Amino acid sequence: MRNVSIALLGCGTVGKGVIDLLAMNGPLIEEQLKTKITIKWVLIRDLQKYESMDLPEPIMLTTNFDDIINDDDVEIVVEVMGSADFAKECIEECFKRKKSVVSANKDLIADYGIPLLKLSQEHNADFQFEASVAGGIPIVRPMYSSLNSNIIEEIIGIMNGTTNYILSNMTEKGMSYEDALEEAKEKGYAEADPTNDVSGYDAARKIAILATLGFHSAVTFNDVTVEGIENITQEDIRHATEMGYVIKLLAIARQDDDGISLNVHPSFIRKGHPLANVGGAYNAVFVRGNCVGDVMMYGQGAGSLPTASAVVSDVMNVILHFNINITGQREFVWHEVKLKNQSSICAPYYLRMVVNNAPGVLAGISRVLADYNISIRSLLQKDETTEIAEIVILIDSSSDGLVKESLQKIESLSCVRKVANAIRVIEV
């Protein structure tokens, strides 16, 4: 039986998961590959922190990347550190030494994925990154393998477990945003600083990766228009429920004849849609191809063993390529990127406004919307006090630019105290 030595860059949640998974399922993996996988090195920052960890033989800990890059026995390097810049330097050096790389680093792939893929091909090395999107859900490889006979038209995903957990608790338990966030922190679903999650940046990196693969286009995180969930309140949740919708933070990539659009934002989605029923910290990715139709993948989007499952699957795929002599021979095709103007992207909207409880308010708001050729689908007024009322409006599909301009005009009306929220309605 052949032996393949690998090295881990990082030994946090995912790195330890890889070690545990190989210990648990090693015989099954060896049976399939006729190859034994041995972890030889683990790169860490602080030796004292890990020296008491009970690691299987013959793993060696090091703080020096040179120990790994100069070891000719190491054929595959697994990068699970999380930091983009140092990880990029390490991976580039691996390719130059003809070592294949598996990465779970979404920040790195979203920003530098295509240059690194090109470099790996130049040096006949493999570069795999299934775990960079949606943890244990198999979605990266299907985008360039199982679904590659299709023109991918649309990718919509719940790609962040923290925000989905928060919104699920707000919907199912009636919790406020602040209380739901605090519970997410207590249970380990949210970091002490949750900005990357709740502001939508984490999901934006993941949709950039999937759009790059699915649309064969060189897009990056910077091409994604991002809006988080910080402004979602119980009022919005309640109105959505009454109208037959659920609010989710969706990452959306669309490919039309006039270009590609990439967005992350809170969305109203019909209760009957499969994505509406994805609860808790789970993730799901909905893909529409011109031949296959609609496909959805669902599962745990984070966690030690689920993410390690994707990492080790990539390692196995690299070894399979070793065994049949096709390492580094996967060709990726990229087209010139044509991004749609954000202001031209159309969708129906839910609008919530706080206004003076006085005659003529509805007429004034309706007049502004009519001036911008925006049609009202439904309208509801709720009196909060004798002085203040809340108006909820559902408008027909309108361009992002026109909606923003009309809301600025509405907010300038003397009878309008504030436009409390504007949330897109996704009709799929």
Automatic annotation (TrEMBL):
Domain ACT: start-end pairs: 350-424
GO molecular function: homoserine dehydrogenase activity; NADP binding
Residues annotated for L-homoserine binding in this entry: 191
Keywords for the protein's UniProt record, in alphabetical order: Amino-acid biosynthesis, Methionine biosynthesis, NADP, Oxidoreductase, Sodium, Threonine biosynthesis
Catalytic activity annotation: L-homoserine + NADP(+) = L-aspartate 4-semialdehyde + NADPH + H(+)
Essential cofactor(s): a metal cation
Protein name stated in the entry: Homoserine dehydrogenase
NADP found in the keyword field: yes
This protein's pathway: Amino-acid biosynthesis; L-methionine biosynthesis via de novo pathway; L-homoserine from L-aspartate: step 3/3; Amino-acid biosynthesis; L-threonine biosynthesis; L-threonine from L-aspartate: step 3/5
InterPro entries attached to this UniProt entry: ACT-like_dom_sf (IPR045865), ACT_dom (IPR002912), Asp/hSer_DH_NAD-bd (IPR005106), HDH (IPR016204), HDH_cat (IPR001342), HDH_CS (IPR019811), NAD(P)-bd_dom_sf (IPR036291)
Sequence positions that bind NADP(+): 9-16
Positions annotated as active site in the UniProt record: 206
Enzyme Commission no: 1.1.1.3
Sections of the chain in a coiled coil: none
Family matches, as Pfam families: ACT (PF01842), Homoserine_dh (PF00742), NAD_binding_3 (PF03447)
The family this protein is said to belong to: Belongs to the homoserine dehydrogenase family.
Organism: Megasphaera cerevisiae DSM 20462
One biological process term in Gene Ontology: threonine biosynthetic process
NCBIfam families listed in its UniProt record: PRK06349.1 (NF004976)
The keyword Zinc-finger appears for this protein: no
List of residues binding NADPH: 106
